Amino acid sequence: MIAYIEYFGIQRIVLCLNSNYEGEAITSTYSINPITGEELDLEIDLNLSNAEVHQAYSYEKFPTNAMEEAFHAVMPTAIENAYEKERDRVLDKALSQAFSKCKVKEGQLLTHEDIQDILDDVLIEIKPFIVHNLAKINLDS
Q: What are the phi and psi torsion angles at 39 (to 5°)?
């Protein structure tokens, strides 16, 4: 009886739960999309012998560059999602603070001066995020 565990598409583990199991075949999976949290309907057929599980434990079945390939497949999406989440958080906070500072009541029309004050406050608040990400872009180039 063996199990396969995969964390975030990167860390992959084969486990021997019982090497003497002689009962009915059992197949069960529980999979979630780590980005959305939604359950996935996956079928996994390991079909590994005890010797192959032992080889996996001894790192004899570990493909060359497997970890690097897994990272390259997953990390761009993870980095993009983290960037978008932080961008949205920074912008929401900046807008919320700017509107609370401007003292305009809900439904009231904004004057040109109000708009300029809001823009100035938003730009001050988001400047560290912009500078940080511009520095990263320059380093990547």
A: -70, 140
> What is residue 43's three-state secondary structure?
coil
In percent, the amount of the chain with pLDDT more than 70 equals 96
d(CA 12, CA 121): 47
**pTM for the whole structure:** 0.61
Distance from first CA to last CA of the chain, Å, rounded?
A: 49
pLDDT in tens, 5-28: 888 877 888 888 888 888 888 888
Of residues 69 and 94, the one with the higher pLDDT is: 94
Q: How far is CA 118 from the centre of its chain?
A: 32
**What are the residues whose beta carbons fall under 8 Å from the beta carbon of 41, sequence distance 6 or more?**
31
User: Long-range contact list for 127-130, CB < 8 A, 24+ apart?
Assistant: 129/86, 129/87, 129/90
**Angle, helices 112-140/66-102, rounded to nearest 10 degrees:** 160
Q: Bridge-partner residues for 31, per DSSP?
A: 40
Q: Which amino acid, 9?
A: G
